[in-house]
Amino acid sequence: EVLRHQDLDGVLATVVRYYGGMNLGAGGLVRAYTDCIAQALLGAEKTPIVRLLTLRCTLPYALEGMARREIQAAGGTLGQVQHSAQVEMTFTLPEPAAAPLVAKPNEADHGQMRWLEVDEAA
Fold first, then answer.
1. Does an H or E element contain 90, and which?
2. In this structure, what are the phi and psi dihedrals at residue 57, rounded to the nearest 5 degrees?
């Protein structure tokens, strides 16, 4: 319950109790463990975990600059870039930013940008 009240997801808390000679009973143990976890969470630094997606696309050279700007504006990190008949880019970005990024260039490039599955290794 303490973890739910702190709005934490994917977190496990473990309490180790060394017996000090005093029997606490079931209710006393629950209160002791709850207080222990609550105190530990008060002093803990909470770092959000953001799921990242890896995307790949091919596009004409004329759209490379626009694509780089859009990736950067979406908080993405450009990975591998290959130049051949077209430009192929691999990049990572936060999952919430993926759908808007994929939709936005499609409006501006008139369908010239092609999205590839990450598993489609060249």
1. strand 87-94
2. -150, 160
Cα dist. 45→1, 14, 32, 107 in Å?
19, 17, 22, 41
Q: What is the 3-state secondary structure (H, E, C) of 68-98?
A: HHHHHHCCCEEEEEEECCCEEEEEEEEHHHH
For the chain, give every domain's residue range.
2-43, 52-116
**CA dist., res. 71 & res. 101, Å (int):** 7
Which amino acid is residue 18, in one-letter code? Y
The answer to whether 102 and 57 have CB atoms below 8 angstroms apart is no
Tokens of 48: 């959000």
Q: 52-116 in CATH: which number?
A: 3.30.70.240
This prediction has a pTM of 0.61
Burial class (CB in 10 A: 0-12, 13-18, 19+), 116: middle
pLDDT digits (tens, 9 = 90+) for 80-102: 999 999 999 999 999 889 888 88
